[in-house]
Here is the input.
Amino acid sequence: MTLSEDICTPAHCERKVPVLATERLVLRAPCALDIGEIAALANDRRIAANTARIPHPYSIADAEHFVASANRHDGQACFVICLDGAPIGVCGLDRRGDDNGIELGYWLGASYWGRGFATEAVRAVIDHAFGELAHQTLQAGARVSNPASRRVLEKCAFQWTGVRLTRIRAINSAAPVDRFRLDRGLWQSLKSWGRVRRVA
Ligand SMILES: CC(C)(COP(=O)(O)OP(=O)(O)OC[C@H]1O[C@@H](n2cnc3c(N)ncnc32)[C@H](O)[C@@H]1OP(=O)(O)O)[C@@H](O)C(=O)NCCC(=O)NCCS
Here is the structure.
């Protein structure tokens, strides 16, 4: 992951987020030009049912609200995930997990599933969280019925901490959610392991 010098500063953002570039993806702050595409991608029950706060159906007004409220609070770092310049999903951090901790969340438009994009985007946001933002711990959750999301978290070294009932807006109910945690020390260890080579 490289951190671009180019800082995305849409007028609505009170707090800047950098542009994160990976091998295939660019992650940047949401802006008004994304509203139509975000509404089209997010208007999918499979996305809403697996995230805590996304409504279904998902309207243009919902996308407008999302863009207007992104990156306005302390602890929030919200990115649109772009492939070849076009939005394909969202990934970000927010201060709303257990103990008011930093919670990682993400979703991709369904036509982009199964190509490793979520893992690539999440790893970039994790590097940003422990690198530039100097967070100590990240939290995340995946419904127990969502093995793809669980796998993304496992591939990013998150550790399972238990199951908790969580309110899911789109189903107007609570559902069991596997909870995960990633500590800075484990992330640092994995990063340094990558630089060690066996010589025999
Ligand atoms: C979860 C989600 C982000 C995954 O995106 P993605 O780009 O397909 O994820 P990746 O390709 O990086 O990784 C998915 C992994 O899950 C695995 N997987 C997918 N479906 C699976 C299933 N039914 N059972 C077990 N593993 C599964 C894939 O094989 C892959 O693992 P691998 O690389 O070891 O083969 C996407 O499905 C999504 O947006 N879902 C709806 C919203 C959501 O669930 N958001 C997360 C909220 S916690």
In short: The chain has six helices and nine strands. Residues 46-47, 50-51, 106-108, 113-119, 141-142, 146-149, 151-152 surround coenzyme A (CB under 6 Å). The longest strand covers residues 173-183.
